[in-house]
Every structure is written in C-alpha cells, then in structure tokens.
From TrEMBL:
ATP-binding listed as a keyword: yes
CDD domains listed in its UniProt record: ABC_DR_subfamily_A (cd03230)
SUPFAM superfamilies assigned: P-loop containing nucleoside triphosphate hydrolases
Protein name (database record): ABC transporter ATP-binding protein
Record keyword Transmembrane present: no
PROSITE patterns: ABC_TRANSPORTER_2
Chain ranges of the ABC transporter domain: 2-228
C-alpha cells in the first residue's frame, strides 16, 4: 500500500514541485500516471523508490518510509527508469545472475519465457542491444522480479508495435493481487486497455484519480459529427467532435480515451467525484 500524507518536495533552490500532496494506493492495481512534461511524474517515482526525500510530510510504501532504503523495502520494489543505463559489457545472463539475488521472489523460468516472448536472444552483451531490446529486457526483468511495487517510467517508449501489445498482455497476465504497478506515460494509447486507474498530476497535486470502471460507468466518450448536447467537454478533431457526456441509462459504456480524458481534466472540465486535495 502507498500512502502520501501532506507530502511536499522541492529540488534544491527551486520552488516546490509537490505541495502537501495526499494520495493512497491499495495493492492489486495497475495505475496510469499521467501529467504534462515537467509535472513531476519521474520525481514522484523517485520519491516512492526512496531515491529522493520529501521536504516535508510523509510517504509510506508497504509500511516502510522509502528514503530509509531498508533492504526489506528495496527487495519488494523495482524501478524501470525512462533512460536505461546498463553495464554495456555485461551479457543479459550475467546481469540476471548478479541482480536477481536481490529479489527473493525472482522467477528465472518466467524470465526465460519473457525473453522468448519478447523475441530476445537467451544471452547477448547489453551494449550490443538496441534501445528497444534493452527496454524489453528490463521490462521482463521487472516482471520476473515479482516485486510488490513496480514503477515503470515510460515503459513503452522505444518499443515496436508488436512489442507494445505484448507488453500489455504480459503485464495483464503476470500481475497478482498483492502487486501494484505504476506506469508513467505519455503514450496513452499503449496503456488505455491495461490500466485499472487513471491518475493525473498537475502543479504539485493529484488533480484527478479515478478507476477506469467507475469512469466508464459515469461518462460516455463519444465521437461524431455533432457532440452530445450534455457534453462536459468537446474537442474538434478531423471529421468530427470528440466529446465526454454523462452516460445515459440506455447507453452501453464506451471505450475511454485517455487522451480526451487528460485534455478535459487539464482544462478543468472533469473532476473526480470527490476532488483530491480540494
Ligand atoms: N535533478 C533535478 N534537479 C533539479 N530539478 C529537476 C531535477 N529533475 C527534474 N527536475 C525538474 O523537476 C520538474 C519535474 O521533472 P520530472 O522529470 O519529474 O517531470 P516529468 O513529469 O517526469 O516530465 P516528463 O513528462 O517530461 O518526463 C521539472 O521542472 C524538472 O526540470
């Protein structure tokens, strides 16, 4: 479980990036963490991983204060950073051999299978692999670690089209009820059918936090030559209008467009039922 209580954070000599932020995450969810460039998504991941220390307030992850960097905390957490800096001379198997020991639940059979699924060779020097291949290797490693918290920063960046859809299938198939996955991304289409919950951060706060099921029970995401007259948000696009309107009693729930949702939230047209930090 993740608990942020009035958490503030500022980089040295800079204005606060997070300002008294409250947030709670129960285990068992795949969360899409969205926000504009510079909103603080990677910083939040750094705070959750204990790489950064809150300026004030509190963070607890699975009962630990991340910045304490307790070994018991670290063995249940894996962070896949946006840029991967890997030991170029190591082979994949040597990398696995040296790091898997840190993760008590690491599943080598699963790792082998995921390498096959991702079309990666069994062994190769990391320095001879492409950016996308290294990313797939690290995603496979993160999943095989079986950690309670997986922090994936832009995981689909650099993945080819088949690998993106494989990524969705692999996450869905391998995540258990005691695990939490937080995916920070701008590639919203890549996670639309994967996440259970959409969280949007802006100006140091969580401005939107809603489960996808609850969203599709409340709102209809439509596209047509005309927007619904009750729309709360309308966006002109090629050939028509994207809109968000209250779901009518006789309507089937629609597919949620995270891009339209994000645009609506950022200009303050859509809120969580109980606005967080309001
Ligand atoms: N090490 C650092 N020192 C000082 N400022 C930093 C540092 N890292 C990030 N920042 C600043 O903090 C803010 C948030 O950065 P962060 O990388 O967390 O945003 P982000 O939401 O992940 O952005 P993006 O979507 O562009 O990846 C930015 O204004 C950035 O310039």
């Amino acid at each position: 479980m993740i608990l942020l209580n009035q958490m503030s954070f500022a980089y040295r000599k800079q204005a606060p990036l997070f300002d008294q932020m409250d947030w709670e995450v129960q285990p068992g969810q795949v969360i899409g963490l969205l926000g504009k460039n510079g909103a603080g998504k990677s910083t939040l991941m750094g705070l959750l991983a204990g790489l950064l220390k809150p300026t004030s307030g509190d963070i607890q992850v699975n009962g630990y204060r991340p910045f304490g960097r307790s070994p018991l905390f670290l063995q249940e957490l894996i962070l896949l950073p946006e840029e991967n800096f890997l030991p170029e001379k190591n082979t994949m198997q040597r990398y696995i051999g040296s790091l898997a020991a840190f993760y008590p639940r690491f599943d080598r059979a699963k790792m082998n299978q995921l390498q096959k699924d991702f079309d990666l060779p069994y062994d190769q020097k990391l320095g001879r692999m492409s950016f996308g291949q290294r990313k797939k290797f690290l995603i496979a490693f993160a999943i095989a670690s079986d950690c309670k918290l997986l922090l994936l920063d832009e995981p689909t960046n650099g993945l080819d089209i088949p690998s993106k859809s494989l990524f969705r299938k692999i996450v869905t198939a391998n995540i258990e009820d005691d695990q939490t996955v937080i995916i920070s991304t701008h590639q919203v289409k890549d996670v639309e059918n994967l996440i259970d919950r959409a969280v949007i951060v802006n100006h140091g706060k969580v401005i939107f936090d809603e489960e996808m099921l609850s969203l599709s029970d409340q709102w209809y995401f439509g596209f047509g030559s005309q927007a619904d007259e009750h729309s709360v948000y309308v966006e002109k696009s090629m050939g028509g209008y994207h809109y968000i309107a209250p779901l009518k009693a006789d309507q089937q729930p629609s597919q949620i467009s995270l891009e339209i949702l994000f645009n609506a939230v950022i200009i303050n047209r859509l809120h969580t039922p109980k606005p967080v930090n309001a």
